[in-house]
Design a protein that fits this description.
By secondary structure, the protein is an alpha+beta fold. Helices cover 17% and strands 46% of the residues.
């Protein structure tokens, strides 16, 4: 009876350890390096009628561009972009928010990315773009 209980406990322990060791690839986040980050005003067709999130306050539209480096040999999907954006007075443009958008697919190697942001019209430029990074999945998560 004791021997049987010890076998069950041992087998449960082994299965528990193995479930932590072999994580499915879709669950593992892949870090993406973002660099050469800059911004420009949106073309007029994108900027028309821009307002800030949740209000009707006037906003300026900007396109943040840069390069994304995927150092794996697989496509990374649904990569969330994180970063901090400050105005000319060092005030945060996106209060309490570091997730700025996403990139649907990042192929292996270096590729370009683009992100549209709306900034309240009363915040002075030039903008300061800091601490940009991204993380995504090695398999599609969202459909």
């Amino acid at each position: 009876m004791l021997l049987r209980a010890l076998r069950v406990i041992f087998l449960s322990y082994v299965l528990g350890v193995l479930s932590w060791v072999f994580i499915p690839s879709a669950v593992a986040l892949t870090q993406i390096k973002l660099f050469d980050i800059s911004y420009n005003e949106c073309p007029k067709e994108l900027a028309k009628g821009a307002v800030t999130s949740g209000t009707t306050m006037a906003a300026n539209c900007f396109l943040v561009t840069g390069k994304a480096e995927n150092s794996t040999n697989k496509i990374v999907y649904d990569a969330d972009i994180f970063g901090r954006i400050y105005d000319a007075n060092n005030d945060s443009v996106m209060q309490n928010r570091t997730r700025l958008g996403s990139i649907a697919e990042v192929p292996p190697g270096i590729s370009n990315f683009e992100l549209r942001i709306s900034v309240p019209a009363n915040q002075p430029t030039p903008l300061k773009l800091k601490q940009f990074k991204a993380a995504g999945f090695s398999a599609q998560v969202r459909k």
